Amino acid sequence: MTAIVHNVSPGLWRLAWRRLRADRVAMASLAVVAAFLLMLVLSASGLIVADWEQEVGVNYAPPGFVGAAQPPPAEPAQAAPTQPMQAAPAQAVPPQPMQATQALPDNPFDPLADDIRALRAQLAAGGAGAIDMYGVTDPLAGDLAQLRGARGDTSAAHAGAGRLATLPFGADKWGHDIIKKTIKGGETSIVVGLVAALLAVSLGSLFGALSGYFGGVVDDLFNWFYSIFTAIPSVLMILAVAAVLQQKGVATIVLILGLTGWTGPYRLIRAEYIKHKAREYVLAADAIGASHWRKMFTHIFPNVSHVALVQMSILVVGFIKAEVILSFLGFGVPVGVVSWGSMLNEAQNELILGRWWQLTAAAVAMALLVTAFSLFTDALRDALDPKVK
Amino acid sequence: MMSDTPLLDIADLRIAFRADRHTTVEAVKGVSFQVPRNATVALVGESGSGKSVSSLAVMGLLPPDATVIDPASRIRFDGRDLLALSAAERRALCGKDIAMIFQEPMSSLNPVFTVGAQIVEVLRLHMGMSAAQARRRALELLDEVGIPDPAVKIDAYPSQMSGGQQQRVMIAMAIACEPKLLIADEPTTALDVTIQKQIMELIARLQKRHAMAVLFITHDLGLVAEIADHVIVMRHGEVREAGPAQQVFGQPQDGYTKALLHCRPSLDARPWHLPVIADYLADVEHQRFAGGDIAEGQGVTPLHPLERQRGYGPDDQPLLVVNKLSKTFHLREGWFGKREFQAVKDVSFTLARGKTLGVVGESGSGKTTVGLTLLRLHQASGGSAMFDGRDLLAMTPREFQAYKRRIQIIFQNPYASLNPRFTVGQILLEPMRIHRIGADDRERTAIAHELLEKVGLPAAAFQRYPHEFSGGQRQRIAIARCLTMKPEILVCDESVSALDVSVQAQVLNLLQDLQDEFGLSYIFISHDLSVVKYIADQVMVMHRGEVVELADSDQLYRNPTHPYTRALLAAIPRHG
Asked: What is the DSSP letter of B316?
């Protein structure tokens, strides 16, 4: 042994941090995770994307690099009343009723051809009323035009004129900026992932500590619970708990994931406690008169905490994905709360129409975070326990 | 050392390990030595001396990406430069011409294959034998290394054999291909003394019969006195002394060699203090390692003129009276079966105030169980332990809490008995907090600093973590932790067994000083009879859970009455 020359004495965490810092992949992935967390904090505190609900773009405004949507047949007129705005600026003015003559060419074999021709002539002469593209008279067309005119006066300033045809990353069906929506959605997803993982690991650590330390009947009891929880397929379990809780909300999801996810950490922490309780340093603590609680949490827990930490970071990744799946299945966050899962859920209808940008934004953000987090977890495990490498 | 050409010729070997990207640690600093054909060479050194690293370099077993072997280094075996060979050539050579035995037979043998299968594998791989041939040869080998009933044992799994038998199997595997060089790396350190003696004899016999060279690596200079032709003493990656065995043992030239020879307590004399390395090394050396393990001066003249007298006298007051202590473990066997194992059977003894009781026995003798049961770290199955008028074993846990500070334990492995996540300060303060010793943390910190000084550690140690200290220093920390509670009885469970010989002497001196100063009573548990002879007033010899002999230490060593005691004494390696 060499003489110790310097005064600082790095603890095991600091040594782990040193190893981590030497690992480039770890630092890159940590930077990505940190960027996401920063985003989360800023958006949660309202410093950024507080205005994500503003309808800044036109409905389904495509990303800037794709270019504005082609004007016509995108939006059938019937869809208009349910929506605040039309599809493209070209249609900002109410669509002109089609001229009968232009609408459809005469069909010589149509048995009603004569009637239609007469009708069209009458309309053309009268000038009032409108015929839709199928050549059918719309009795309310005039009222609709009037309504639109009236509304156009009041809302043109904020909606009609100011809305953009394209946004950098596109817009959803209400014209929300996708990038802001993704950041806001990330807030929910990451919070759910982190808090649920914290809950699951806390429960798992506590149960594992009690079970592994005391053994015997306590161990049997917890193992019995563990067996029940792991015997049921996890998705089924999640759906069952979701059905029982019946209340939609972020807290519910956290609870569901936390209550079903403790089994993994429990198993590992229990094994560590069984291993450590027979170690000499625990015997020594026993010999100096330390209480059970003290031995469990002051002595043993710091020595197994790296297991809990690595478990936690694995669970964060898993729970972010689980939240997405839950939301996709409709058990997730309530309407009005945006998360990556709810974005993907919306995107399943949009994809048929060729609007891929919401899906892409949510999926890319999630993939980036999950990949970075997984890489970081790996590096963290190596740094905390270099022997496993 | 020169015959014609030496079998193994190591010249200027330099090996460094990469600690991280920027720093390397030099483990072997220009070592040169030779192993002649058909001779036994002992490579002796304490932990960190580079002896094992040198031998692993010969075998090519060092981790390639963490090791830097200096390009100027030469390892010539039988005229070929090992370092210049390809990995495949090296593999063909190692195992066939060079074989190795390791310290831990249990972890060197594959637990899922029978020992026969493992020997057969070696034979088929290197000798190209058929399965039937190899099995016949394996039987011969097992017979040769002294495995009883080899026809049955060849199909046994390693776990079904004792440690000594496992090491014999390892030796059988090593000599299977008639190697020219056998490297034995601490082959007996994990074994009991009586087994150690048998293995040493076996190696010596095989060396002669097979006309091979043996490179015997050990920390224990006394061990190789009988078998070595040449001795090389290493320290800190350098060769300190090399020469024929008679010369090294008879007229050691180097101070370090002298220290190694004398630090180990001898059976014939009991000096007031054991000599430590610092007593033998030049002052320059002394200062160079100041702050390390070696530097703590004892403040006493190195070789005390007086011999210490040991033994119980008529006016000793009994402090702890143990009567018919027994401990039974219940083992599960199969699904429903249960087996009882009596680890301790009706052990009775008396410990006097300020005296030391030595407990000696081999592994499985129940000596450690006695210690742990007295501290109630195991629940006793029967008997009593009267301390201060109360039976320690009959108290409720709540009542016993107050007694915990009065009877303390120092464990064998200083690497395992200190919580790695606690600083030394936390380790020392904790017992005082639990037992409310000292008014506040400031006072406790002052006590802790005082104790650190007492056990010979710098005050700066307070802020550091256990992993920054060497084994001897850690054992001092463990001792200081016990002293915070001012115990009356200290159980030392193999407390110096894991330490290097020179460090062991320092810790024994420290324990002795503390006994002189505080009047502590020790229960000193050890497998090492010479250590027990040095430190104990009374010695209790245990065998299979029973006390076979209990007597004053001088009397026990002079006139052992029980055959087992005699066997133990005969197994102690003697030198000079």
From this structure: P
Q: What confidence tens digit (pLDDT) does each residue in B384-411 have?
A: 999 988 999 999 989 999 899 999 999 8
Q: Tally A–B CB contacts below 8 A.
A: 86
Sign of CA dihedral B461, B466, B472, B477: positive
Distance CA B563, CA A373 (A): 66
C-alpha–C-alpha distance, residues A130 and B328, integer Å: 102
H helix count then E strand count, chain A = 15, 2
Write out pLDDT tens, residues A77-95.
Answer: 444 444 444 444 444 444 4
User: Which DSSP string corresponds to B435-491?
Assistant: TT-SSSHHHHHHHHHHHHHHTT--GGGGGS-GGGS-HHHHHHHHHHHHHTT--SEEE
Collapsed DSSP state (helix, strand, coil) of residue B567: helix
Answer yes or no: are the C-beta atoms of B358 and B539 closer than 8 Å.
yes
The CATH number linked to B336 is 3.40.50.300
CA distance B81 to B74: 7
Assign a CATH topology to domain A13-50+176-384.
MetI-like fold (1.10.3720)
Please state, in angstroms and rounded to a whole number, the distance separating the CA atoms of residues A56 and A177.
Answer: 7
The ipTM, to two decimals, is 0.77
Number of residues in chain A: 389
> Cα separation of A332 and B295, whole Å?
67
pLDDT band of B302, cuts 50, 70, 90 = very low
Residue B499, pLDDT score: 83
pLDDT at B149 over 80: yes
The Cα A27–Cα A254 span in angstroms is 29
CA nearest to B137, candidates B97, B175, B105: B175
Domain boundaries along the sequence of chain A: 13-50+176-384, 77-160
| Chain B residues interacting with chain A (CB cutoff of 8 angstroms) | 20-21, 48, 289-293, 372, 375, 377, 401, 404-405, 408-409, 411-413, 416-421, 423, 430-431, 434-435, 460, 463-465, 467-470, 473, 478, 481, 485
